[in-house]
Amino acid sequence: MWTFTTCTAYNAHSFINDLNEFTFSCANHLIFVYGQPGEFACRVTDFVDDDRVRVVINKRDVVIFQRKDKYYAMDAHCFHQGGALYAGDIEDIDGRPCVKCPSHRYRICIENGERFMELHETEPPTWQSRGIRQRTHTVFLKDDKLFVRLSSFDKPFDSDKYNDGTGTEK
Ligand code: FES
Q1: What is the span of the domain harbouring residue 125?
Q2: Average pLDDT rounded to a whole number, residues 9-31
Q3: Cα(74)–Cα(109) distance, rounded to whole angstroms?
Q4: 166 Cβ inside 6 Å of ligand 1
Q5: What is the CATH number of the domain that holds 121?
Q6: 75: pLDDT confidence band, cut at 50, 70 and 90?
Q7: Is 170 within a domain?
């Protein structure tokens, strides 16, 4: 059985054009998928020792995070200056799971690639969105296998220039 594990409005629109064999729903969207909806990435058992797996999908450098039995995929290098997001800590910001870039500590939501910045003008400090900057992808779970479907490249993202699939540190 296919399980749709992550969903953003952006990714949902790319799916809706497919003829379908399977139907899934999340909180906001009804999703139709025909056959295998992405490239094989890894197995659930690969997360036993860590909460993330770094893979190359169609020459794209991608990290998959596991968080509370959900899986999220995004470009592995930070949109800012190519920092190693795949090695960043995960924390909740206003209820949203975010990765903290090890290079300059930007917080990026692993659900949709949105950057959050801490504002110190208020007490206590608050978090403000600075827009969606990091490209995210869609993860499917079938049995114990995870598949990743890259998001449409029709729309450019700031993280594109750092994730060409070479797997090299930047
Ligand atoms: S490279 Fe990630 S915050 Fe600067």
Answers
A1: 2-162
A2: 42
A3: 10
A4: no
A5: 2.102.10.10
A6: very high
A7: no
Q: Give the total number of structural domains in the chain.
A: 1
135, 163 Cβ separation under 8 angstroms: yes
Alpha carbon distance 27, 19 (integer Å): 21
Buried b (16+ CB within 10 A) or exposed e, 21-60: ebebeeeebebebeeebbbebbeeebbeeeebbbbbbeeb
- Identify the H or E element spanning 11: helix 9-15
Overall pTM > 0.90: no
- How remote is the CA of residue 3 from the centroid of ligand 1, in Å? 32
Mutate to test the pocket of ligand 1, among 74, 78, 110 (most ligand atoms within 8 A of CB): 78
- 63, 99, 100, 104, best to mutate for ligand 1 pocket (most atoms within 8 Å of CB): 104
